[in-house]
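Sample pair:
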Amino acid sequence: PQIAPAEVTQLADLVAIGGGAAPQITILETEGELPWASHTARYAVAEILAAIAKARLALVFVNTRMQAELMFHELWRINEESLPIALHHGSLDVAQRRKVEAAMAAGKLRAVVATSTLDLGIDWGDVDLVLQIGAPKGASRLIQRIGRANHRLDEPSRALLVPSNRFEVLECRAALEAAAAGAQDAAVTRDGGLDVLAQHVMGMACAGPFRADDLYAEVTSAHPYGALTRDQFDRIVDFVSTGGYALRSYERFAKLRTTDDGRLRLSHPRLAQQYRLNIGTIVESPMLKVRLVGRKGAPRPGRAQKPLMGGRALGEIDEWFAGELKPGDAFVFGGEIVRLEGIRETEVYVSRATARDPIVPSYPGGRFPLSTHLAQRVRAMLADRRAWPRLPKAVAHWLELQRRRSVIPGADEVLVETFPQGARHHLVAYPFEGRLAHQTLGMLLTRRLERAGARPLGFLANDYALSVWGLGDLSGLIAGGKLDLARLLDEDMLGDDLEAWLAETSLMRRTFRHCAIIAGLIERRHPGKEKSGRQLTVSSDLIYDVLRRHEPGHILLEAAYADAATGLLDIARLSDFLRRIKGRIRHIALDHASPLAVPLLIEMGRETVHGEARESMLREAADTLIRQALAHGPDD
């Protein structure tokens, strides 16, 4: 296909990043339509390939493994010149990744589509262009990735940012401004985990007997554990020694004994070997090995089907995703289209295949949340009309339409819009606090709206906003005084509502499983064998239920809650948001969706539409929403 020329808007002429020649960073403004809601950047594949063709060697960075597989597949689909393009991410087999790295070093490739597996620790002198697909989610990550290009003192790094949707244009612009200002958004420190401390205590015992007083003094001298109380430390030591009150009657949890002189030692020497087999604080989601085999044929009469075995290893795939597939399904993996032949124990057997619309694998934990620092800049940019002319025309026009149809929130405000859409009523809020905080907020809001009689049906959250929909007339409830937004968004939702919700969901079970593995309560490996993900889940769920019932104050349950609060739930950030918006909630009742709400509503529709008609149906639904949002204006 003919590649349309891309009009590129220069966003930063000189950005000082760590010395050397100043990088040249641009953001892509395509001649095509910029999507309202998307995470793939499919609209710009032609422009991305054109940029690769002009470079000696380009690194195409994406944020998730799923995006890597999808972008690589899309590039090869239109790569009529057969430019040598490779794929590199953490789920590919190690031998495959080393092969790609060797080809890069030998100058045999023109581009590599990669996740963060290539943005640290490796210098590729021939890389002269970095493309960031999608918003970088943080200025520090952007700086790190840009530094991979022209990593020489006298040559500038060149980078091209390709936002996936209109909100991401704002985020890309904010990231460039933050980079120009030398701002860093990485978290410098965090409190030490109690599960990690339990592993350390066991490690010290493996090294030899120790005194609890001496170890406590040593641990609290480290900054992450500076606020650790003696009570918490003693409970951790008791947990490592006996398993705690509810588990102390089981011999397998008795790992430490007290010597005659008051020191603590291992109860049996074999525990040291078991510790070495299971040491580590990174808990991978259950993965299955993918092997390439010949396609299964129908067995000959009188002969049994040959069992699946052997085959070259392609890499690993998420156990949950593999469980959703059925034999014959085609999906993309390692840049190839493969067909599922069968699953046996911990291995997935596939054969090469062809398909028009193969499934793209999903992987857990791949999404980066929008950093707090960038969120502040995005809110400020949104509220400052003087900054809009520097944005692409489509985005500036979108914000102007929002100002006319509804309002643009101030930098310290939160905008809440309510409107009907079909048979449902929507509440859309724009906190700009990141996906994790928004998902937790959405869960808690649905509980409160249920009590208020709003009959919520569900919610959807992204990095910038969240939408809750239901059968109750939200605008009418607010106008009639039956629903108070100030009380709805009060900080007290992080109390009983949060506790009740966590007790009902599987999230705490998953978090507890991770903590139990790190703390050594559940062992992943034994000499000569390794537990499957299903076995680990069953074991941890049984222990979780026992502790919840008989020892709700167990130190490991406390560790799991603290881990969820700082990671999966982002409680600290949500708490800061609720505190910041007190008295600054701006409500607008509309008769249809606003331009700013359209991306969320399109994403909501994408969750339930599948098959070949997906794209046309989504386009038709999006067009309807956009026409409604842009209606009633002669200048639109």
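The chain has 22 helices and 21 strands.
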